[in-house]
Design brief:
The chain is of the alpha/beta class and 129 residues long. It is built from 7 helices and 5 strands. Helix 7 links the parallel strand 4 and strand 5. Helix 1 packs across helix 2, helix 5 crosses helix 6 and helix 6 packs across helix 7. Keywords: Hydrolase, Magnesium, Metal-binding, Nuclease, Toxin-antitoxin system.
Length: 129
């Protein structure tokens, strides 16, 4: 299964960076795609118009739901954040550490357009698609 981060969904819905859009298209066509609760919330809260919200919500509700937030992942994410900080790396958003940790702990690939995930990858074993 593959998780698509908010940053990649934004590119996809705005027909943005072609390589990111293509990765999302390919994942939706050929892979099992999961939607994390955090990603679901981030994407939907950024939508301005009700008809777009309804369309995107329908798409997301057709995907496998992945509850990312809970005490076990929160604890592991805090440890991962500390590991990264000890190496001089500061991740800008706590949510990104949680999403990255969730993917690592569950052996899932991640499609994204956010440099923080690239920084995490070699230290945490995050599989970038």
């Amino acid at each position: 299964m593959i998780i698509i981060d908010t940053s990649a969904w934004i590119e996809y819905f705005n027909n943005g960076i072609p390589r990111v859009v293509q990765k999302v298209d390919e994942a939706l066509e050929g892979e099992i795609v999961g939607i994390g609760d955090l990603v679901y919330c981030e994407v939907l809260q950024g939508i301005r118009y009700r008809h777009e919200w309804d369309q995107i919500s329908t798409l997301f509700n057709s995907l496998t739901r992945c509850p990312m937030v809970g005490f076990p992942i929160a604890e592991k994410a805090s440890r991962n954040y500390t590991i990264l900080r000890s190496k001089g790396i500061t991740i800008r958003k706590t949510i990104d550490v949680i999403i990255g940790t969730y993917c690592v702990e569950n052996g899932l690939g991640l499609i994204h357009n956010d440099r923080d995930f690239d920084i995490m990858s070699p230290y945490l074993g995050l599989k970038i698609i």
